[in-house]
Write a structure and sequence with these properties.
Blueprint: E1 2-6, H1 18-27, E2 31-38, E3 44-46, H2 53-56, H3 67-70, H4 90-98, E4 103-108, H5 118-128, E5 135-139, H6 142-151, E6 157-161, H7 169-175, E7 180-183, H8 190-199, E8 202-205, H9 211-220, E9 224-227, H10 230-236
Parallel strand pairs: 1-2, 1-9, 2-4, 4-5, 5-6, 6-7, 7-8, 8-9
Antiparallel strand pairs: 2-3
Helix pairs in contact: 7-8
Bound molecules: SN-glycerol-3-phosphate and magnesium ion.
């Protein structure tokens, strides 16, 4: 089972920061999950919310600021401002990922804001850094997922979902050339797991932070777990 640090090792370090990604790597994670948005000047930035407030304490949206402004904004609000870390650009992350063995699960954050051209820009950056073989895409906005797949068919892609809009989602994934489903844990049951297994669709499940659920995923032998607490998960796996 692949262990992905959700927004990096966010259980202990400020989410979606270079520190959280470095700590996930040091811990021995197989990968990290991160979220990308576009700045005011159309640059890819790594942050979870459209609004800056929760993680930085600053007013406004990611899209209200330029890349260079965002790169100077402290981003450790979720950890009592205890760390001197800022919002990374996706370019900075890619420079790190090039030297790392970790897989990067890139979530295209177009579920609330539609960022024109974000998929193409993300793919161009991945190609520039030669990361095609160690990234996967995912998005709650399936139009973004489908666009990623059509622009870069060689890069694995997953559909994110937190509600079950239709039954037999694994068939939808297959029909759209997807390799993965990324469901909220609560949507899983034996039937879904079996359908995915039968169709060769990998399940990367989020966001699993307790031992009971981790053990259940281990029993189902899913492809990946996305967790804020990769230390706990790696321990359970005996790694
Ligand atoms: O990609 C899994 C998970 O990150 C999806 O939800 O809101 O944490 O981005 P969210
Ligand atoms: Mg995410």
């Amino acid at each position: 089972m692949y262990v992905y640090g959700h927004r990096g090792f966010s259980g202990k370090y400020p989410e979606n920061t270079m520190l959280a990604f470095q700590k996930a790597e040091e811990l021995g994670c197989d990968g990290v999950e991160l979220d990308v948005h576009l700045s005011k000047d159309g640059e890819l930035m790594v942050i979870h919310d459209e609004k800056l407030l929760r993680t930085t304490g600053k007013e406004g949206l990611v899209s209200d600021y330029t890349r260079s402004e965002l790169e100077r904004i402290k981003a450790s609000k979720t950890k009592d401002d205890a760390y001197d870390v800022t919002i990374p650009s996706f370019e900075e992350y890619c420079a790190f990922a090039r030297k790392s063995d970790m897989v990067t699960n890139i979530e295209i954050k177009t579920n609330r804001s539609w960022y024109v051209g974000i998929e193409k820009k993300t793919i161009e950056m991945i190609r520039r850094f030669g990361l095609e073989n160690k990234v996967i895409f995912s998005s709650f906005n399936w139009l973004s997922a489908v666009r990623c797949k059509s622009l870069a068919p060689e890069i694995p892609c997953g559909l994110l979902y937190e509600e079950t809009p239709v039954r037999h989602l694994a068939y939808q994934a297959v029909d759209h050339g997807m390799q993965f489903l990324h469901p909220d844990y609560v949507l899983l049951n034996d039937e879904v797991v079996e359908e995915c297994r039968k169709l060769g669709i990998g399940l990367n499940v989020w966001t699993i932070n307790d031992e009971e659920r981790m053990r259940k995923l281990m029993a189902w032998n899913v492809r990946g777990v996305i967790t804020n607490n990769p230390d706990m998960c790696l321990r359970l796996l005996g790694r």
